[in-house]
Amino acid sequence: xxxxxxxxxxxxxxxxxxxxxxxxxxxxxxxxxxxxxxxxxxxxxxxxxxxxxxxxxxxxxxxxxxxxxxxxxxxxxxxxxxxxxxxxxxxxxxxxxxxxxxxxxxxxxxxxxxxxxxxxxxxxxxxxxxxxxxxxxxxxxxxxxxxxxxxxxxxxxxxxxxxxxxxxxxxxxxxxxxxxxxxxxxxxxxxxxxxxxxxx
Length: 200
What we know:
CATH class: Mainly Alpha
Distance between the termini: 15 Å
Shape: globular
Helix content: over 70%
Number of domains: 1
Oligomer: single chain
Largest sheet: none
């Protein structure tokens, strides 16, 4: 379990590094931050892949991965705001809604199960791709436009999916691909999970 943990730790350490670069170096750090962003994504892909290949994936590791993802993306988002304040301010209402939905995911999960959400749902994974494109556009090219809008609205869509998953699950469970799969779990209907969904 050492390699996946180190990859997660690496991504966790990238979060303050990106914040410090954006705060102190500002525009001069844009290219470096984009590179670190891709390194963070690669660490997220490979920690799950390696854990599955070595048959050492565990609920604890999945929860750690999920919370590290949250910290990483928040740090990237704050850095993007510092570097592109005016662009992001144009979407203040939508971004506030996004944070409210994220908070609701955690609040509902804690109220129902006493622990944080860890669904690793398919729509959330697609959202990760949308975030990557949006942040590369913002940080690398100072452009918001369609990539930023897509990331925001897909984020709202994916968070709604997570909320429905939490509400449908009869008990806490990690790695639930979608609302439909949560419904199957609630009904006691077995299904086979995609290997790709278990990797990240």
